[in-house]
């Protein structure tokens, strides 16, 4: 089953993939959940679920790089946190990618509708989680909590290496509950951790030879454009409305994949 009409030529298909990457990166910049758009676009392109997931992770990586570059000011004074949390993010991302490859396409395909539903659910919880976090921001975090943060980030990275949709929501929630800091600064730290997860998963995907490079390159260009547009429009677009649209899309796509 594909979402593209058979008479559409290959150039048009790649153009639609690039557009989906622009939208996904734009959504990631402003609200999160962009993979709920770009991953189904790749399956509609005709790729298997496994190859689409791997290609999506590689294609959106320039967007993470751009996000980290744009967050440099917010990362000042957070070196100790990065030293603490990047190692579990790297290990979790690598282990998650290995689990994905071991399971193979057939098993992963059976999990896709549930994963899309989970990513949609996490996105829907983002705003309530932020409200809870803001009410508890003044609480002190103990050293024991910091140790638990390593475990929590590892588990979030494990999920991200396996399937990225919703990972950013999990990571930001963990960081916000464990550290007394502004959400903008913690969002910058989230970008670094997300990039670490994707970088750790990359070698597994390259060795397995599952990346559909023409699609990945087209979408990588789109991801950079979408991130730039999202940064420029950050004060013009309401994240709540954008998030609601992505949640609706995620629910509809979950139904489509359940029917498949």
Largest sheet: none
Distance between the termini: 8 Å
Count of helical regions: 10
E-strand count: 0
Mean pLDDT: 83
User: Which consecutive residue ranges, at least 5 long each, have pLDDT under 50?
Assistant: 1-8
Order of helices and strands: HHHHHHHHHH
Quick recap:
The protein has 260 residues and is mainly α. It is built from ten helices and no strands. The chain has one domain.
Structural key phrases:
260 residues, disordered N terminus, 10 helices, mainly alpha, 80% helix
Task: Tell me about this structure.
With 260 residues, the chain is mostly helical. It has one domain. It contains 10 helices and no strands. The termini are close together.
Lay out the secondary structure:
Layout: H1 10-30, H2 35-44, H3 49-59, H4 61-70, H5 79-135, H6 143-162, H7 167-178, H8 183-208, H9 213-232, H10 239-259
Helix pairs in contact: 1-2, 1-9, 2-3, 3-9, 4-8, 4-9, 5-6, 5-7, 5-8, 5-10, 6-7, 6-8, 7-8
